[in-house]
Amino acid sequence: MRFAGCCRKKIREVLGPDGEDAVYLVSLNFESLGILLFRREVTLDLVDDFFSGPILLSWQKLKVHSEECRRTLNRETFNEWFHWLAERMMEREKLSPPVPAYIAHRTWREPRLRMATDESTGSD
Description:
- The chain has one domain (8-94).
- By secondary structure, the chain is an all-alpha fold.
- The protein contains five helices and no strands.
């Protein structure tokens, strides 16, 4: 079943009460991440590397739900930072399409560790 643009009723119908709670928790996580990014507690590069795909896919599926909640709760701030975060990710991907890490960093190697000698440890 395709969930793009699901309303509250459809989510409740398909996922049940536990599914509604799960949707709320996903939204709350991205809501929290949005405000952390806005306040510069995390960088956009970090958010992009970790969550760009899940943020965009989740927003596509939950945008209608969020807008409906705003209307029924009379609360424009519902999922405001999730919405803001998704827009930042969309803007970023318009400028530079995402490249999977397994391609972008395929030549990455762990740095070699040096073995310490007795003389180099210098412990007192």
